[in-house]
Amino acid sequence: MILSMKKLIIFLLLVVIAIGISVFLFPAKFGASHALDRTAPELTVELVKSPAYAVKISARDELTSLTDLKLEAVQNGKSISLPAEEYLHGENASLSITYPPKKISENLKEGEVTLNVSISDSSYWKNSATQSLSFTIDKRSPRLDILSQQHRMFAGGSELVVYTVREENLAETGVLLGDMTFCAVPLNTFSGFEDASSTIYVSLFAAPLDMTGKDFSPHAYAKDSYGNTTKLPLRMRYDPKKVPEASPSISRNFLERKIPPLLEESTLDYPDAFTTATAAEDTDDETWISYFKTINEKYRLTLRNSLKSILTDGTRCTPLIPTEQMTRPLQGSLMSGFGEQRYYKYNGADAGFSVHEGFDLASVRNDDVVATGSGTVLLAEEFGIYGNAVLIDHGLGLSSLYGHLSSIQVEVGQKVQEGQKIAQSGETGLAGGDHLHFELRVGFVPVTPIEWWDPKWFTDNITGKLSSFAKKSDEETTSEEAQ
Ligand SMILES: [Zn+2]
């Protein structure tokens, strides 16, 4: 009897030990975490700079959920607690948030601040972790002053703006128009303008040909790294334009010559039919129209998108490459207007639509094509419907494109001078005859080159404007008027 009692006690002891070990090894399963959790949560706090200063807080606890997130800011010896309750809810054991800069700036003053972030676990022991971060709060918006006089702008035209920005933590500056942003570059980074004040910025912007007077509302802007933004309207007269229209006819011969190779290259839709010699002849009108639309609309869009990603790459805003003037790339006659809306016809039927974003210039076959201005070659290759093409970056977001070339003499990365021979005209791509397709763009907006080729416009609006501000000292560029 005594022996079996002893056995029972030993057995019960073993059971208790086994439970104890299991609870120790797998506490969460037995609901015992609250008592056993003796480690504090892991906590990291860091300052992130994009898009503005913000505090990134990450925390996690091994065994229990997180609780008691506290943000205490110490500024000039005073302690201020920042709202944090909303970021912790439920039984979460991990947390990853970006604390909004607005909440920091709303509750604190300008200047140095130390932020103490603490968090606890929900165990019996309330283990807690604390991390601190010191930084400066900037609540002042950048100060902007427009220096250049703006007078009048046409739809499809270009405009140079010179202005000063005063801001220690400048993140972004340029011109806003509609949903477009045009970059800006400090004037003292332009060759020949090294002595200009470092507060002077230059931006080039453009009004799309189809922009109405109601939508035309350009602003110079500057944003600091805290998100404080200043915008100033650029007041000037604006002349909208009636967009030109045309209805070119396409021929069967043109379709048979141009469409099959472009379809194949585009990889959008290459009918097996074209692999046989008589296939083109066997294709009916309706099918030809659909192939033409694939190339003229879908493939054009794909190519425009690649062009856009090259031209609106934010890192590409470089100083304007100095030049005395800009020149016509081909000495020939103008074949078609800029910005024409083309409604194509095939045997009288509607064959689709496209906007002609450039100028067509024609002279003799394989005539010399020269660079319209000095710059750097961004692209020199076969480029879909543009055929063999060259794209030149002139700085400050201005670029020129030359299409349908028969041969190219420049390579990517090469520096070219205004008037330098770069290629020969041709009829590659979607061209019906030998001509040069020429586009000039500011950012991604096609602009009329007529302004840039006019020596008086070029002096008044570009070179003259720049040199009139180059010599100004810091004091002279400061206007005392309030914003
Ligand atoms: Zn063209």
Task: Characterize the overall form.
Answer: flat
The small-molecule ligands in this entry are: zinc ion
- CATH fold node name of the largest domain: Glucose Permease (Domain IIA)
Q: Pick out the low-confidence regions.
A: 477-483
> How many separate domains make up the residues?
3
Structure characterization notes:
The protein is of the alpha+beta class and 483 residues long. It folds into three domains: 33-137, Immunoglobulin-like; 143-242 and 466-470, Immunoglobulin-like, CATH 2.60.40.10; 245-446, Glucose Permease (Domain IIA) (Distorted Sandwich), CATH 2.70.70.10. It is built from eight helices and 31 strands. The protein has helices at residues 2-25, 33-36, 101-107, 252-266, 279-282, 285-311, 449-453, 455-470, and strands at 42-48, 54-60, 66-75, 78-82, 94-99, 111-121, 128-137, 143-146, 152-154, 158-166, 170-177, 180-186, 200-206, 219-224, 229-233, 237-239, 245-246, 249-250, 333-336, 341-346, 349-355, 359-362, 368-370, 375-382, 388-395, 398-405, 407-408, 415-416, 421-424, 436-442, 445-447. Strands 19, 22, 24, 25, 26, 28, 30 and 31 form an eight-stranded antiparallel beta sheet that branches. A seven-stranded antiparallel beta sheet has the order 8-10-13-12-11-14-15, with helices on one face. Strand 30 (436-442) and strand 31 (445-447) form a beta hairpin. Helix 4 crosses helix 6 (285-311). The radius of gyration is 33 Å and the shape is flat. Residues 477-483 have low confidence and may be disordered. The structure holds zinc ion. Zinc ion (ZN) binds at residues 356, 358, 360, 437. Zinc ion (ZN) is lined by residues 356, 358, 360, 437.
